[in-house]
From TrEMBL:
Domain of life: Bacteria
Species name: Actinopolyspora righensis
This protein's name: Uncharacterized conserved protein YbjT, contains NAD(P)-binding and DUF2867 domains
UniProt xrefs under Pfam families: NAD_binding_10
PANTHER family: PRESTALK A DIFFERENTIATION PROTEIN A (PTHR43162:SF1), PTHR43162
Residues covered by the NAD(P)-binding domain: 10-182
Length: 286
């Protein structure tokens, strides 16, 4: 592999830093692109370029000479699609050949979850930019689930009896590493999930078992859920409610074999994740 033929965005986050360390273990040279380089993990065999998703000129400099870019989606924001297009335009102008993009399960123009629509538009923009796309349509991250629990030990949301195949970020990192290193994954869209879809009653029970608390799930009606978020910005309310409605609709229940097929090892179940990563739920413990 040529020196620094891979550039990573988002390497200060949990997913990106995990991929960065896995590439280091494989001896792969990498270029780390970060808004705050001082927050990057310490890894060998890499160079660092300061650039944010708002600065197309800096991104263009960061991507020049790079063959493949890991594009970690921006944080939730009303301007996220604009930020994504800034990254895509810079990558296309720099001559990047392939983009591995962290998308979302069920990404589609008319998806229930508003951000899944943004991910769909981003996938389309990458392809329209003339670059080969590998889309990792990740299910909801397992480490986010403990944050759904209120102070009273109740998960509330309009998810009905729908299911989600929660996926550990570490499993996504393992998958992304393999995908970045093999061009056979170009021009592919992968559903990325944990091994089993759980409803929120089952999810709450598993959280209760590890935390030693009585954790339950209350299925709200949509308007009830919206009233409970009164005072938040409208886009935040729509996104929060939409994430639960996507579960209710079945859009997040897809269970794929992508992680095991590509990496040779199956992903953690939600119960296995909770046992392996107690820091994610320690704040809930009795």
């Amino acid at each position: 592999m040529l020196a620094e033929s891979i550039a990573l965005t988002g390497a200060t986050g949990e997913l990106g830093s995990g991929i960065c360390r896995l590439l280091e273990r494989r001896g792969v040279p990498q270029r780390l692109v970060a808004r705050s380089p001082e927050r990057l993990p310490r890894v060998e065999n890499c160079s660092v370029v300061r650039a944010s998703y708002t600065d197309q000129a800096a991104l263009l400099r960061a991507f020049r000479g790079v063959d493949t870019v890991l594009f970690v989606s921006a944080h939730e924001d009303p301007a996220r699609l604009w930020l994504h297009r800034t990254v895509i335009d810079a990558a296309a102008e720099a001559g990047v050949r392939r983009v591995v993009y962290t998308s979302f399960m069920g990404a589609a123009p008319h998806a229930t979850f508003p951000f899944a629509r943004e991910h769909s538009a981003t996938e389309q923009a990458i392809a329209a930019g003339g670059m080969r796309l590998t889309a990792l349509r990740n299910s909801m991250y397992a480490d986010l689930v403990p944050r759904f629990v209120g102070d009273d030990g109740v998960i509330r949301g309009p998810a009905g009896s729908g299911r989600a195949a929660w996926v550990a970020r570490w499993d996504v990192a393992r998958l992304a590493t393999e995908v970045l290193l093999d061009d056979d994954h170009a021009d592919r869209v992968y559903d990325v999930s944990g091994p089993e879809p759980l409803d929120l009653h089952e999810t709450a029970r598993l959280l209760g078992e590890v935390t030693g608390r009585d954790i339950t799930y209350h299925a709200e009606e949509e308007q009830e859920a919206r009233r409970s978020r009164a005072g938040a910005q409208q886009w935040q309310v729509d996104a929060w409610v939409g994430s639960y409605l996507a579960i209710a609709s079945g859009e997040t229940s897809v269970t794929s074999h992508t992680v095991e097929h590509v990496t040779g090892r199956r992903p953690w179940s939600f119960a296995e994740y909770l046992r392996a990563e107690p820091d994610s739920w320690r704040h809930l413990a009795a």
